[in-house]
Write a structure and sequence with these properties.
about 80% helix
Length: about 270
Amino acid sequence: MKFKKIIKTFFIIMSFLLVNVIIDVITGASIPSIIAQVKDGDFLKASGYVIYGVLCGQVVKLAILYFYIKKRDKTFRSKYNRRYISDAKIKDPLTLVGIGIGTIGFGQLLTNLIIKAFAGTEILKSSMDILQNVFNAKGIVDGIVILIVTVIGAPLVEELLFRGVLFEEIRKECSVKTTIFLTALMFGYYHFNIIQTPNTFFMGLVLAYVYFKTKSIKASIIVHATNNILAMIPFLDKGLSPIGICIYTVFLIIGIYSLITLRRKA
């Protein structure tokens, strides 16, 4: 029986990743080329418009999620007498914002440590180039698209995917602790580069815990959105300077306090 559950969990994860990768490859390969051809008259400049592919991928996934969740919801209501993805009322949004502040504090600290540890290596350069291509705004329109993708698209789509669909599908086969770990691991793997993967793994642990404790996907969306909004503020990244470490530490303390508060109230 245990072996059967392991096989089913593996199949769920592989199917989940495969669908997402296929969508990302199709939109990532086609949309930036089209935008480059329209704006610059040269599809070979597609690397400068990767963010448009990301946005299109989010829209496609959101459309698929709408119908998939609607279908699974009917099954869960009849079989388990509950909604497919938990959506309880948010009782304390400020606590969730505090947790989001904590994740960005931890994330900035960890990211800067990784950059320092891998300085001068090809793996770091490759990761930096990828992020530069994705978040390189050439004008106001590009900036707006980056803002939409980061602040709205990522929190909404990624939470529905990882803390929604993947969490609930794995939870049918595994314990809550295993489910939290596996969804976080896949969240980190999905952001496959040396700069983002460690941070998104730990962030995934927090987001999955928040979803489980609050029984609301809206809660993890708020935490995720808070994290991403703060990540867009340039003055926040002070590196490993004394002022930077102070900022990250204060943010981390706020986050830990907010997590403890959530645990007590949930």
